[in-house]
Design brief:
Helix content: 40-55%
Distance between the termini: 18 Å
Shape: elongated
Structural class: alpha/beta
CATH topology of the largest domain: Spore Coat Polysaccharide Biosynthesis Protein SpsA, Chain A
Mean pLDDT: 85
């Protein structure tokens, strides 16, 4: 199979029929063998009924239904798990991503041998202050930290080699940073293509202001897991050891000064009257806890897989 199109959907009943027809026209025109995988992320409208209708009319359309809303990352995770196409395309269900971009994305993966190609919505039709400016800031931060030269990490329209999506784990809000996950999994040939962004035709955006908090936190999570996920003791053990040594040195200096004062028959204040005693004691306790956290993390990381599981109600 040439292409799998993975489409997370949440309360998008009005746009799905038009999107399926549009994708079908593009695929038939270019003579691609394909499948379209819709993931109903716990919709409260008739999204699932529309998906069932589309599967009956078009054998290339498949559907997965979550019992509740898990989020876009969970939907992508399950879609990636069942995708069979040599090239996997992800796009949003709100008609803001243009299926006409699919042939060129497919060509870049198959002919130019990119592992991943990310869309860049150079001209956006989103609100300036609620989406455009925060998006520019997050993209700038992600570029600086990841060293991946992409303008739009969060663009829903992306293309992947099949082996890429089978090698990464997407959870939380990690869909924003799939290129970072791919790079740290060893897929270094990451490209970018300017894509057409269209105004939302139906409904309204499903993302609120909470994404401004979750996004940076998940970026930190990606960095930590990628660098220390399999060796947490390297991080926590080092921090714990340095913190413990700092506290021990403080306590040792106070103790030595006290002993020297006693030896020379000089009245010295109680060690417990010095604030450095409590600072040193706190550092030693924190250092011990950090070391133990790293040790326990090391045991957990070696005890088995931490892959998430999601409750699927129906599958076509």
């Amino acid at each position: 199979m040439d292409i799998s199109v993975v489409i997370p959907s949440y309360n998008e009943e009005e746009s799905l029929r038009e999107l399926v027809n549009w994708i079908e026209a593009v695929m038939d025109k270019n003579k691609f063998s394909y499948e379209v995988i819709f993931i109903d992320d716990g919709s409260t409208d008739t999204t699932w009924q529309v998906i069932e209708e589309c599967t009956q009319k078009n054998a290339s359309v498949k559907g997965i239904k979550f019992r509740r809303n898990y989020g876009k990352s969970a939907a992508l995770f399950c879609g990636f798990d069942v995708a069979k196409g040599d090239v996997v395309i992800t796009m949003d269900a709100d008609l803001q991503d243009n299926p006409e971009e699919i042939p060129e994305l497919y060509r870049m993966i198959t002919e130019e041998n990119y592992d991943l190609v990310s869309g860049w919505k150079k001209k956006r039709y989103d609100p300036l202050f609620s989406k455009n400016i925060p998006s520019k800031f997050f993209n700038w931060t992600a570029r600086r930290i990841s060293k991946i030269k992409l303008h739009d990490f969060n663009c829903g329209l992306k293309a992947y080699k099949n082996r890429v999506i089978k090698s990464i784990e997407v959870y939380g809000e990690m869909h924003r940073y799939i290129p970072v996950l791919a790079k740290w999994s060893g897929f270094n040939k990451i490209g970018e293509k300017v894509v057409q962004h269209q105004e939302r035709k139906f409904g309204k955006t499903k993302y609120g202001f909470e994404r401004f908090i979750r996004g940076p936190l998940d970026l930190l999570s990606v960095i930590f897991i990628s660098k220390y996920g399999k060796r947490p003791l390297h991080l926590f053990g080092t921090l714990g050891t340095l913190t413990f040594i700092l506290g021990f040195v403080m306590a040792a200096i106070l103790g030595i000064n006290k002993l020297l004062a006693i030896r020379h028959n000089v009245t010295a204040p109680l060690v417990t009257n010095s604030p450095y005693f409590y600072i040193g004691l706190t550092c030693m306790v924190l250092g011990t806890l950090l070391f133990l956290s790293g040790f326990l993390g090391e045991l957990i990381s070696r005890s088995g897989s931490n892959r998430n599981s999601y409750l699927i109600e129906k599958e076509i």
